[in-house]
Structure prediction request, 289 residues.
Amino acid sequence: MPLLPKRIIDSHVHFIHPERLEYPWMAEAPELRRYFGPNELQSAVGTLPVVDLVFMEVSARPEQSLLEVEWVETLMREEPRLRALVAQARLTDVKQRDRQLDALGEHPTVRGIRDIIQWEAPGYCCQPAYIEGAKIAAARGLHLELCLFPTQLEDALALVKAVPDARFVLNHCAKPGIRTKAWQPWADRIAQIAAYPNLICKISGLLTEADHASWQPHDILPYIHHVIEHFGTRRLMYGGDWPVLTLAGSYQQWFDVVALAVTGWSQSELDDFLYGNAARFYQLERSSA
Prediction:
């Protein structure tokens, strides 16, 4: 029987505006160098009951972080499902860090920050400046989103240990090497980092870690099942990673893979994963009045 969810929060959506912001990384993905906004997202989502959205920063130039936040906030006027943002901040930039976090703190829609790790050298996220930045962000009520490769999970583990008062989200299951069928050391490190209750994981972004042209659900499902085994249904969130996922498939195709992975779950487990966990984490609960 197909999964028929009542409500979904997509905890990982990107909106893109190349005429307003510069995205250096798109030199490697020119297909994404065009406008992607709420109307385009709705066309991709189709009939799936996506009721709320969390915007994830898109690695524009670091100096444009606040401009990105201000632009996305204008989209909230046309897209009421867009409820919260995760902004970019360079935690290792000691001179600018406090000023940047002060500016972001003036925007209550910003719930967390992401200083992307995957493109950085080993040790980036466990160096003293990053750890201190994570502590400062946490003291301001901001959580940290971790986007990294499996080889950086050991560094991420050191970071999570060093800042026990911070809340962390592991993006894209730490991007396992699905296209090459790589399993270790990713699997062991997922088990290790999942032991820390101040970190939760997004099931997102896995289509683009598989072979873009020939992936099959059975290529991806073992990785999702491993994450489910170690994080449990209360520490997982669903994310679409749209429009990046379009490099390898459609929104519906990705949701269909996720639906296979959660076959047999109870209705309450499904609702936690697809809605409740993200609603609580990103403070999206709506008043019942």
